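Extended Data, panel c. Modelled sequence:
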Amino acid sequence: MAIGSGLGAQLSIGAETTYGTYVAPSKHLEFTKESLVLKKTTAQSAGIAANRLVALSSRRVVTQREANGSIDLEVTNKGMGTLLQALMGTSVTPAQQAASTAYLQAHTLADTAGKSLVIQKGVPLTTGAVTDKTFLGCKVTSAEFSCEQGGMLTASYEFDCKDCDETQTLVVASYSNVSPFHFGQMALKTGTYASETALDGIRKVSIKIERPQAVDRFYAGQAGLKKEPISNDQVKITGSVEMDYVATTLDDLHTSDAATSLVWEFVGPIIASTYPETFRIKLPAIRIDEAPPTIDGFEVIKPTISFTGLYDGTNQPVIEYISTDTTL
């Protein structure tokens, strides 16, 4: 029996082969919170019957089912590939670096068609019995990564899901030792693509990637369930940087509205040879939207820079992840 509180909860994921079709999840996530819930559309008859004052229970029907919600977690040195692939869209096979135990995953931005997940959560009753809720056809609609002074790198994923199935068997969760990426490993670089240099004075960075999709594809003949969402707008990439006003690099880019490449990276311990544990977001072009160095008393000036990620005409945004994972 599990502990009858959130201490006994579990969350597992797996990549689907076919949208909305169950596969046993094999990745077990250590998460901080989640909000995945079933959403149903109901219709109640408005039929008039003599002297009936309350609507008849038997004349209420469920016309559609879907689910949505989010998962918050720390970004760790292993086990992140399945989520990153569902976000970015490219089918990735980890590439061994030289003859070492380090493997590179390059998640280049692409369409997410065919990239959906099964997410299974175990929710404990106070008795310690764990109930199963399995979410099928889970498509990532956005993800936000953030790290602040003294903190860990965290991620918040938003999902749209086809359905919630409560008839599956809860998988047995097992965990390996993992370490989170953190502020002490962080660097932010800007400049010419592939020749970016580190900025000083950075306190906090956040980057959000949004994947707009048509999530309302409910058709006749589908038993009230949706078909796989389709991308229906351009990907939106935005971010912010909190910093001390140690230089005018970003402020000048705001004034000129010139583009710069941005690299946000976390470099951890060496895995083997010259290959360290790495999490890196590369945006080939950003434009600064706001950079207000305003004075508010005697304190050090701390502007918050906001930016938009754009396409430079040649290079796509990419998330690079180096770990010991030989598969996603």
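The CA atoms of residues 177 and 292 lie 42 Å apart. This feature is highlighted in the accompanying rendering.
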